[in-house]
Amino acid sequence: MGVATCTQIASGSCNSPLGLHPLQKQPANTAKACTSQPASLTCSKRDSETFLNEDQIKELATGLELIGLPFILVLNFPSNLSAKAELERALTKGFLERVKNRGVVHTGWFQQQLALKHSSLGCYVCHGGFSSVIEALINECQLVLLPFKGDQFFNSKLIANDLKAGVEVNRGDEGGFFHKEDIIDAIKTIMMEDNKEQGKQTRESHMQWSMFLSNQEIQNKFITDMVAQLKSMA
């Protein structure tokens, strides 16, 4: 796992004036993947500052392959490396050929909000960043949490253990590594075993929090109350 600097992340945009970039369109390969049946697609994405090592890419990709569901796997690499070369090195031999009819591996910028709103997306495997978690909760896709650093671990525990609105991927005690079986178990819980107790409870809790976060009246009241408290402190 590595960490990217702000310069690396913004390197493709820092030479142009703010606001002059065209709107990003959804890549053709991800658009094709989104033609799946409603709520059948799994999307796995990390934050732009975190890079999986070769072993973890293999485990994640193999887990998505073996579970048998259509998927989009979003992988990013440091800007000084060739994404194509890294994919060829990290993915198991023949992976892209085996999954070509139901899987997409994407590198580079990804329209997360567009994907989360799409009716085909049924499960979002994310790092547990606060913004990503909220965006997933207000949409209908179920959450599988795979944290890597900082507050991502706290957010994942909150969502999976306290709110019961998602499932966290199990990790080994030694080094915190995960394996393909852990990926499969987490996704199956909410995508293929939704009639069992944990899957059913997770879906019900997710729906309740989605309704709460999407209720504009409640959110406006929070803002009004906060402004009133700030004024009282002045």
UniProtKB/TrEMBL annotation:
Taxonomy, superkingdom: Eukaryota
PANTHER family: GLYCOSYLTRANSFERASE (PTHR48049), UDP-GLYCOSYLTRANSFERASE 79A6 (PTHR48049:SF84)
Positions of transmembrane segments: none
Protein name according to UniProt: UDP-glycosyltransferase 79A6
A Pfam family of this chain: UDPGT
Gene Ontology molecular function terms on file: UDP-glucosyltransferase activity
UniProt key word Zinc: no
Keyword Transcription regulation: no
UniProtKB keywords: Glycosyltransferase, Transferase
Family, per entry: Belongs to the UDP-glycosyltransferase family.
